[in-house]
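A sample copied in:

***
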Amino acid sequence: MRVVIQSNSSTVGTWAARHIAGAIQEAASRNSRFVLGLATGSTPLTTYAELIRMHREEGLSFAHVITFNMDEYVGLPKEHPESYHSFMWNNFFSHIDILPENTNILNGNAADLLQECADYERRITDVGGIDLFLAGIGVDGHLAFNEPFSSLTSRTRVMDLTIDTRIVNSRFFDGDVNAVPKQALTVGVGTVCDARQVILLATGYVKANALKHTIEGDVSHVWTASALQMHPDPIIVCDEQACMDLKVSTYRYFKEEEAGSNQ
């Protein structure tokens, strides 16, 4: 596991964006497409903003990038301002040169939700798997919408959202928890961990306890992000506040590792 500790949320986003851009450009140099998994929520916004800047000012192209989003609410029209379809187009896709047909977002209004989930897994397999998955982490340590006690081998499926998750997300629904959908479609923990590389973003003290369990705790379905301990190439990019609950020795180890790798 690689843990990159940055000073604040802005530098977390910049570091992640540059890493993603480098991976996309490396694939382009081989005339290969790049398959990118994407997260929603407030944490990755700085990453998307930096990728947009790099596209506009440095010529970073997404013409050969295929994306798969982590999740989508069930029953929320895709035109709703808080649907993840709207989120991605408003905050990222509309500002870059990605081909619309190369974007994949789960359909929370599909007539057959189980079939939609199975088809999503098939589409990921058909393109050869995900090269890099950009992920966030919930305050309870959930990865995507894989709530506590989810199987660590789970695949894309329908998930009942906990009241804690709905309360946290109610800030996007004018503070009305009853307006937050009670279900979502989500890639599974196993789906995320099948990616060749995973970048997990964690910012703010509110994520400190979850980050502690992810890095220092046992691998557990209670903290689904802890499954990254078993991944061959995970990178956690976090700010100083998110590290507040880590042991001093853990913090120093990863700071020294990064300092050494940059020499």
Q: What stands out?
A: Strands lie at 2-6, 34-38, 65-69, 71-73, 103-104, 132-135, 157-160, 183-186, 197-202, 234-239. The first strand starts at residue 2 and ends at 6.
